[in-house]
């Protein structure tokens, strides 16, 4: 009897360990992000979680998160785009010519600049998709070409200032309904978003249940729903205690929602995952992999253009050095977020979490007075650990 009880206890222990490892592998970056938030709050004597600082983290990293969203689709196909930083600078330079030199309205200049970014993406995607030239080579050429063209367009000088309405993209906030100490409109939006997220989780669970898939217990679902609502409303309160939601945060929210819908709910999204997972099999199943690759690079060009506009609006200037090394930050965010280096694996939520991990690291280390040199070294080490974790998880699943 004692032997039987011992075996049962051992099995229960093994099951708990397995579940714990599965949870960590699935939510590793979320756990790391939470750990960083708590750690920096303690190490900075409460400075880190101040509403102004949290808002600054979003404003300072918004262009990287936009880049990372576009880079996710490129990485899902098993490619990389090294040109996005240079495309950011080039589009920022064009926006300076249009709005500063030619006084063209931002309402017209912004769509023109995004269209230019899409054309650049089409140019690069054409060589990758239809000529089979490795994306690394094509986009490396783009990195050099568009960095040089930026210098040509700007003549080595910065262009400033931009119209005030254009600057609001990166520095503006949602209007408030009252003059109280808490931004009421932001709180209302936060509660509505929390309710929408919980409803989405419930709907997904019911759909899986109706299709006879395994779902979590009601207790586990309730705990997850409560945690989602608490976190969302808590973060919203932090923003509401300062000036409310920044405009750029709303733009990011729309982008995340659009990419989540694309990757999870559309045929095109499933085709992107299939192409990145096994290109030959995707082609044999009738997927037009060349067309998918082409349009993914068009999307990347448009997102790089948007990121360039966001950066130009935040700096209030178009500069030749804009976007330097941003391609590395974007790729790091995607890989931090759990995307596979070989393609076919990754999510938009993971990518945003990965970008926030980088932003929190930069901000926290800056508050603590850590030098830029050490910041780069630490980020490099964490990127390596993220890739090692990805490979470890793959081997474990295959075993």
UniProtKB/TrEMBL annotation:
Q: How does it sit in the membrane?
A: Multi-pass membrane protein
Q: Which UniProt keywords apply?
A: Cell inner membrane, Cell membrane, Membrane, Sugar transport, Transmembrane, Transmembrane helix, Transport
> Is DNA-binding there in the keyword field?
no
Q: Which residues cross the membrane?
A: 21-42, 54-77, 84-102, 108-129, 136-160, 180-200, 221-239, 245-262, 292-313, 333-361
Question: Can you quote a single GO CC term?
Answer: plasma membrane
| Localization annotation | Cell membrane
- Report which superkingdom the organism of origin falls in: Bacteria
Q: Name one GO molecular function term.
A: transmembrane transporter activity
Q: Which NCBIfam families match?
A: GguB
User: Which function does this protein serve?
Assistant: Part of the binding-protein-dependent transport system for D-xylose. Probably responsible for the translocation of the substrate across the membrane.
What protein am I looking at?
A: Xylose transport system permease protein XylH
